[in-house]
Amino acid sequence: MTTIDPETRIPDPIELDRMEEERLRAAAGLLPVHAEGGEYAGFDTVGIPDRPPQTEREREVYTLEEGEMLVNMGPQHPSTHGVMRLVVKVRGEIVVDVDPVLGYLHRGIEKLCENATYTTVLTYVDPMDYLSTMHNEHAPAIAFEKLYDIRAPKRAEYIRALVVELNRVFSHGLMMGFLALDIGGLTPILYSFINRDEVVDLLSAISGQRMLFNFFRVGGVNFDANDEFLSRLGTWRANVLENIEMNERMITENEIFRGRTVGMGRLSGEDAIKLGVTGPNLRASGVAFDVRKAHPYSIYNELEFDVITQDSGDSYARYLQRIAEIKQSIHLIDQIIDKMPHGPVQAQVPGIIRPKPGRAFAAVESPRGLYSVYAISDGGPNPYRFRMRDPSFISLQAVPKLMPGRLVADTMAVMASFDPVMGGVDK
Amino acid sequence: MGHVRRPRPAAHALGRGRPLSAPALAGALIRTLNERIGSDLRDLWTDEDTVEFTIDGARNVNVLTTLRDDPDLDFFMLADAAAVDYGIDAHFEVVYHLYSAKHPAWLRVRARVDRANPRLPSITPLWEGAMFHEREMYDMMGIVFEGNRDLRRIYMSPDYRSFPQRKDFVLPDDAADSSAHGVNPLERPETWDLTRFNEAPAVTFPTSELRPDAPAEGVEDGVTAADKSRPR
Amino acid sequence: MAVDRPTTNLPQPVPTGDAPIIIPDAGGDDALLREFQMEEHPQGGFHGLLEVIPTKADYVLDLIRANSLWPLLSGLSCCAIEMMSTATSVNDIDRFGMFPFRASPRQADVLIVAGTLTTKMAGPLVRLWEQMPEPKWCVAMGTCTTSGGRFKRSYSVVQGVDRVMPVDVYVPGCPPRPEGLIYGMLKLHELVKQRRGQWGTYVDRGPQRTRWEGDVR
User: Fold this and answer.
1) What is the CATH number of domain B20-146?
2) What does pTM read for this prediction?
């Protein structure tokens, strides 16, 4: 085997250019500048922060050992979760550590809600977790009804449950598409968006809006089901199961998809509870916790459904869990349509409500987990404190725990299987 | 003809079912709480589905450890950790919501925190998922959690100066009593005539009476307008 | 008609040469127009737009540019979902040539700012805008980017993306329907064909940094 002595080999043209440039710069007095200390990262894709580390964890992440590098998966990246920045410390292609930087979509919703009337608050919370708007509104509506000591009429509760389950169907369908998109499959996202458009046209028939529905009110919902909604609902229901099966068949047994997700990002049940992960992510790790069964709200006491769990806690299990939940939601929608009573859809509530001073906590099961609202009233027209606990925000903490040891390309796949929505993460 | 006000029925009379404020069926829970952590418990209160009590801030780790590890209580899941500001001459409060499969009520633990020196032990040793909650509480309220390994700002930039969710952080562009009144030209009628827009005097920012030594939020010295969309 | 075109690419905001810049005078007391002529105004200044008479080749080039605008994947928030919905099968924006949502700003023509712009994100977004090569256009989609929208009084939302970058088309809505976004893109087609908009035609105006300091409320 011939070896090339590094001292005598012929340098290639790029190196010759570089050497020439260095010689010229040195002749002009421009000497190369090196950072103080031993932490110069060389090819600096991400600058190490030029201030001292604020915390131990920051020092841990931003200290580079031999052969490590910081790669910035910046706030704008092709993954479709929104604006989040992941500073990934890699050694070659293996991820050593991850530091998520959030706040690129922080809109100050909680502070805005302190200056808004209770009905206006229900419009401010819409764009938080923008793929599950109905859930975003459901929790505050329940909390404000507890504060105001009122109950919504039965028909309103049934319509609420109906739109909430419809929202869950299309949100989980979108997760399937996004997961495949992040892995590299460009087709399932198109089918997911077709599904979403069907459901969203349905919901726009009842609420007037395609996305940020502004449908819930304190004491009920805004509009009753009209003829167009019912006819679209019937058409949709007739086709949805086979559509979901078709989408599922495209992905579930696909060997590339299985190769990328089976065994990836395995999260055990105890770890998930310690990290605060809830929802389908937790149930895919084997813990049977569903807010609709744990603390039933609305009319979930009267509907019959089981809590589905999966055994392995990997990305594939999270995907299967969501498919099972889509089918469960369709089953719930059937029961709701069967049992829906007649009656008013909104209780007689004044335009600006002034509940008595008190505190209320309401939690709902959103497609991403436990979404809860803690509201404090001081007797005035605006809430004194309006706090939302978003599930994606807390589930994101699982990602830095699951990433080390894996390849960079798997980072987004595991992230997508947790289905975070940055609007909720950043509030 | 004047507006005739008809007496309207009370809102809650039209809702169906029992009133919501019936106490929780949580007798066993309350008894167990009194046995295990009775010395720390203050102001026990129940609602339809919640049991709530107040503790002193420094005891939060002990109380939450008991709540989590005791087999009769078994509150294994932290549902929420929130911070509340009760006013500029009152205190802060950190509110934990816990879930147990054995009891039919959410448990709300309110830990009282001093406003002058807001420090609290961190519960990240108990639940790692409280890290982001505590970072958010630090970012928004300025409550320092001792023992948290990563207490930096999470929503705002690392060099942001204020704590937005405190009650003495006034949103700019609020009405006339705000220090930033008039930033939005629509709030100043002298700017409505667009042909004479430039003749309107520039906006100056008086200091706010809540914080007399600080200038208006985010406006640098010598600059009069926060709106930099056109030269002023 | 001979036109003096500078051949250098160095950032020179004023074209050298003796071709005069013709600025129509619209009256003595039109303060608004005068202000518009100021160079610091984001939409202001007449840099070479009136120096040239478009020829047929230019018209064809503009048609080509209009029918193949490549957007940058920069979805920030809820409007991003509607933008994706516009890009997928039911409302297909590929009919207008906008199929490839480029991930890299170096390859993109249009920056559709879809979603709320916060003060923390304003820096990266302006950097994206500056990385896009000319000709480039900006579409402010949704009310959050038009004027701050429903987050009008928030401490961390930029009240309209035109505080940090020049915008060509504003598409109102919260979020705008896909049909609305398509209408906005067709308006952008018209702008491109008439060669209006923010990019320098034949004169390199240098890096387009609109003044942005830390506070953009």
Assistant:
1) 3.30.460.80
2) 0.79
